Amino acid sequence: MTLANWLTVLRLAAIGPAVYFTLHGPLFWGFTFFCCGFATDLLDGYLARARREVTVTGKILDPLADKLLFFGVFTSFAARGEIPWWALVGYIIPQLGLGIGALHLYLTRREIRSAEIPGKAAAGTTALAALALYWTPWGTGFFWAAVGANVLSGFYYLFRLLQATDAAPREEEH
Q: Which of 3, 66, 81, 169 is deepest in the core (most CB within 10 A)?
């Protein structure tokens, strides 16, 4: 297993403690485990490219670990009453759509696409929202910005998926 993939596994391992401490306190420890998990996200892709160790496992596990980390933290804040549950659903729906679209591309074309600018912008907004929920009274506002960015990004990727599906070679009918 590559170093980058180990970092992704560490991110997955940080989710449980981040959620536990965000729910039960002290909140500082929830924040610390979230930051450790998020730091591995910043490092793993860089290391994989720099060391020429980009793997299919990493391409699949990395975005999954990201989604699970943010889902866990945001669910914890919803359980604490700091963000509404229905807003959490507004965040989750585009994430599920992205996952289903990525799975469709992989199963039909064995294709794994890298994030594009709208996805990176949504990811950055999402990270800011999580950090803001831990440390500022404006965390909910940042969360709403993340929901909006993820919905817009979801529409962008849906459009790109439809383009890729239309461009796929069609079998001749016999």
A: 66
pTM: 0.86
Do 37 and 29 form a contact (C-beta atoms < 8 A)? Answer: no
- Residue 119 makes CB contacts below 8 A (sequence gap 6+) with 98, 153, 156, 157
State which residues form the domain around 121: 3-167
Does residue 31 form part of some domain? yes
Provide the CATH number for the domain around residue 86: 1.20.120.1760
Domain contains 172: no
- Whether residue 173 lies inside any domain: the answer is no
Provide the residue-wise pLDDT of the chain in tens; the chain has 174 residues. Answer: 899 999 999 999 999 999 999 999 999 999 999 999 999 988 988 898 899 988 888 888 888 899 999 999 999 999 999 999 999 999 999 888 888 877 877 788 787 777 778 888 999 999 999 999 999 999 999 999 999 999 998 888 888 878 866 765 555 444
